[in-house]
Amino acid sequence: MNVAVSFESSVPTPQSPFKRSRFGRGKRTPIARWFWEIDRVLLLLVTILIGVGLIAVAAASPAAGVRYSGSGVTVAARHYFWMQLAWTVIAVPIMLAVSALPVQIARRAALIGGLVFLALLALVPVIGSAANGATRWISIGPAKLQPSEFLKPMFAVAMAWLFSLRARNPGLPFALISVVPMALIAALLMKQPDFGQTVIFASVWIVLLMLSGASLKLLGMLGAGGLAAIVSAYLFYSVATERINKFLFKQGDTYQVDRAHATLTNGGLLGTGPGAGTEKFTLPEPHTDYIFSVIGEEFGLIACIAIACLYLAIVLRVSLRLLREEDDFLLLASAGLVSQFGLQALINMMVNVGLAPSKGMTLPFISYGGSSMIALSIGMGLLLAFTRENPHLKEATYTVRWNGR
Amino acid sequence: MNAIAAGLAPPRDRALVKNNDSVRVAHYRLMVLMLLFALMVGVISLRLLYLAVFDAPDRSPVASAIGPRADITDRNGVVLAATIKGISLAIRPPRVIGDKERLAAELARLFPNRSVDDYRRILHGRRKFVYLERGATPAKIHAVRLLGEPAIEEVPEPKRFYPQGTMAAQVIGYMDIGGVPVSGMEAFLDKRLTSAANGGQPVALSIDSRVQAALESAIRTSAEKYLAVGGAGVVLDVHTGEVLAMASLPVFNSNAPGLVPVGTDPLRPDARYNRAVSSVYELGSTFKVLTMANAIEHGVITDFGKRYDATAPLQVGGFRIKDDHPENRWMSVPDILIHSSNIGTARISEEIGPERTQAFFRQLGFDRPVDLELGARGKPLWPGFWARTTVMTVAYGHGIAVSQMHLANAYAAMVNGGILRPATMLKLPAGQAPQGKRVISEQTSYRIRQLMRLVVEEGTGRGANISGLRVGGKTGTAEKNLNGRYIHSSLVTTFAAAFPMDAPRYVVVVTMDEPKGIPETYGFRTAAWNALPAVKNVIARIGPLLGVIPDPSKDIDVSDLMPFVYKPEKKDTGVHAID
Questions:
Q1: Which residue of A has its CA nearest to B29?
Q2: What is the pLDDT of residue A7?
Q3: What are residue B482's DSSP bridge partners?
Q4: Which residues, 6 or more positions from A146, have their beta carbon under 8 angstroms from its beta carbon?
Q5: Least CB-CB distance to B4: which of A167, A316, A330?
Q6: What chain A residue is nearest to B1 in terms of C-alpha separation?
Q7: Furthest-apart CA pair in chain A: how many Å?
Q8: Do residues B246 and B168 lie in contact, with contact meaning Cβ atoms separated by under 8 Å?
Q9: What is the mean pLDDT of chain B?
Q10: Any transmembrane segments, and where (chain B) (predicted)?
Q11: CA dist B325 to A205, B322, B339, B396, B568, Å?
Q12: How far apart are CA A172 and CA B179, in angstroms?
């Protein structure tokens, strides 16, 4: 709730030392209001993450450059870094702008966007372009756009909205209704094929079902169903069979996994130092899927642990704030967005450290990728928008703090 | 509150919301999810720590030593071959960031082997990597660093270094420019020196560098004095088969193997050639000791006083066997060896017969290359047809050619109690000597020791008698044989000795290639004049070094043979051609 409230209800300006400040709590300019309502700690964590991502892409860029240089084509050593920097310059304002949207507008935009990208996703098999053995992208001029990346945050918002309607229409089978878009998206994704994204969408859907009060029986059934789905995917879906075989039995071509392991461990605990990595040049996708390994080689496994903790901090920050959140939709939407974000990071890191089969999933805000950067910014912008809080509401509580303030 | 409000309009009152059951369930489940997520991050962190501890590349000195080739040392740990850091300087023209004109001039100043124009062509050319200098000196590397040009690379290239220079060069061998071992123990030990399992541990050869130095110095002194074209020598431990020294003259430096000329004359192989194992020679009268051993072993000789007719050359078919310095009398067994009588030896071999002669020499390994770690082992020239004359000539070392190492091995078996052991170039752990196989009995071996000692006390080996070191041995002189034809002007002289004869420990064999007669030797050039002094020199130097204390009170008892040694009434003061 209540972000909306803060926009409507104007609080009398207190006479305070902040008076003359542009961002004083009393200022009523839109920017000042945005600044005081936004979760500044979350914003700081995301900023750090983007900074880390730029350094990581700078480290991985020469390796990727060598990889994608061929006869006639020479990719400059820092090409991917400059590209990523350019995308960041575009993406950060988008994130800030989205974070400033009023909740209703943000939600409506997300719902409409969700429909648009669902349509685009459906069109991928028709107008998409293939790369690395999968058709996931739609080329728009020089840029390539992956609809599923954009659909992800919007799907979370749409599902949150759907489940938040439950309270108003207790009789309707919302869980059953939500199966329809979920199944549609899963079918489209598996056709590409994109097993990893399917797992993310399904996980977000299950998390939202869980938070919206689905019975334990239903959740148990879903858990069993998920297990059955994975087993049947292993049995009947060749890509999954291959990947899981590789992971479990080290069968077949484990080159990628072996290279990732060699790169990750080459630097030891403290790393070889920036630019001193050597194994990264043998990695198939140093700047995207396996950037975590590149960080491990050059900055040490201690840096990898720090990054894992950074993701944990973001998830905890949002979740702890949500424990105060009373509004169904905001709670569900924020939880959906953050779990989607955290889960993607988790899976990528697990693949890199050899705890999960390789999936072709990027590390949010760290991996290179233009359209993915924009999509993530939109998702994070929505999250920031949904977690905005009127600072005066907190102050208005009549509780006595232990320090007497 | 109601979800309606959330969706459509802001709720009016927060208090209402607090009672919402579904929100409380959501909060509860959110906490569970949070914990799950934290747990997963914990698992990832633990996995990362695990990787850091157990899977990080091992950078300990032991492990990193796997890369460079391990050292080769002598039996006492003296380094014979080591791997040192070498730096080569190279340039990557596409990466040059400075002024190419100036850089070309600077390079021409620092590396004058190419001109400024050459460097300009390189810098503007298409080549991506050009060596400026292999194995650059620290001063050159420093000068290049001062240029501040990042396109110049210092390429680490491990370099093989032989700190002892020419010492035992043919044994150690050498590497070609690409770091591939070409010969010697470098080639034999290649896998072991570079394998990870070995862990960079140095490999100890059986060579004792002190003994090696004494042997090389003695052979060189002799070769220079007697104008020999080459020489070879072996010092062998008779109880273990370890080769304490092996020398071949002329020498080369393993650090620069290309500096010696390539030999084209088949009679004078080049310096990289190991004459001790690769050359096969007719070793002449040194074989008489082996023939005697065979005869004693098979009961052909039971009475050492039995005399053989050496009054006149022996005519066998169209072949005449003469003595080099005829005694023209009937000779006892000790006399035959002392005076190196071909006729007497031939008569004894006649009694042994072709089968037993062949069997014995086969037992000693004279029909095949010697059993040793070195490559390029010479293949003996084994008689194709054993006529009556063949048996007779082979008995005194003609008509059969073996390497010096063959002879040293056989002599070790003759004196050590009768056990033939394979020789080795690797240091054996104490008490790990190979079992070996018996070729003659203890008693026969004892008799041979007596006879060898008598040769030095009374006969052709007199010059090798060193007070207290109890040397025994046998001389041997033969003509070089090229493609089946004897070259009368080219002699190969050998002295094979063992000491101390009361309890033999070492065999020393020295061979001189084409020694010449000099005024000091009255023009003579047989073994006693040139190979023997070298052996005497070696034994005198290494005896005390190896723990054989000169002791005049000790010696092997030869008194039972003395009655059979012919003593002329009048001491002969004339100079003999002795052999």
A1: A211
A2: 44
A3: B485
A4: A136, A137, A138, A371, A372, A375
A5: A167
A6: A327
A7: 71
A8: yes
A9: 86
A10: 30-53
A11: 114, 9, 8, 15, 15
A12: 81
C-alpha B292/C-alpha A83 separation (Å) is: 93
What does the pLDDT look like over A185-237, one tens digit per residue?
999 888 887 888 888 999 999 999 888 888 888 888 888 988 898 888 888 87
Three-point CA angle B180, B185, B188, nearest 5°: 70
Residues of chain A with Cβ-Cβ distance to B38 below 8 Å are: 312, 316
A-facing residues of B in 57-116 (CB < 8 A) are 57, 59
Q: Which CATH architecture group holds B209-562?
A: 3-Layer(aba) Sandwich (3.40)
Residue with tokens 């609080």: A11
Q: Is the pLDDT of residue B542 over 70?
A: yes
Please tell me what DSSP assigns to residue A70. Answer: -
Given a cut of 60, is residue B533 above it in pLDDT? Answer: yes
Q: Which residues of B touch A335 (CB under 8 A)?
A: 26, 30, 33
Residue tagged 């704030």 (tokens): A321
Interface of B with A in 249-308 (CB under 8 A): none
Could you write out the DSSP letters of every residue in A266-291? HTTTT-S-TT--SGGGG-SSTTTTTH
Across the interface, whether the CB atoms of A213 and B26 are under 8 A apart is answered yes
**CA distance linking residue B527 with residue B477, whole number of Å:** 6
The distance of A349 to chain B (nearest Cα, Å) reads: 7
Please choose, from the candidates B331, B362, B363, B364, the residue with its C-alpha nearest in 3D space to the C-alpha of residue B348: B331
Residue A205 CA from chain centroid, whole number: 15
| B254 flagged as catalytic | no
Contacts of B49 in chain A (CB under 8 A): 301, 305
Whole-structure pTM value: 0.55
Going from N- to C-terminal start, the domains of chain A cover 101-214, 254-368
Contact B170, B219 (CB under 8 A): no
Structure tokens given for B179: 């770091």
Of A117-121, B270-274, B494-498, the range with the lowest mean pLDDT is B270-274
Note whether B35 contacts A: Cβ–Cβ < 8 A: no
Helix axes B442-458, B286-297, angle to 10 degrees: 140
pLDDT tens digits, residue range A253-287? 677 788 888 888 888 888 888 888 888 888 888 88
Q: Which two tokens stand for residue B52?
A: 């850091």
Which residue is closest to A6 within chain B, CA to CA? B10
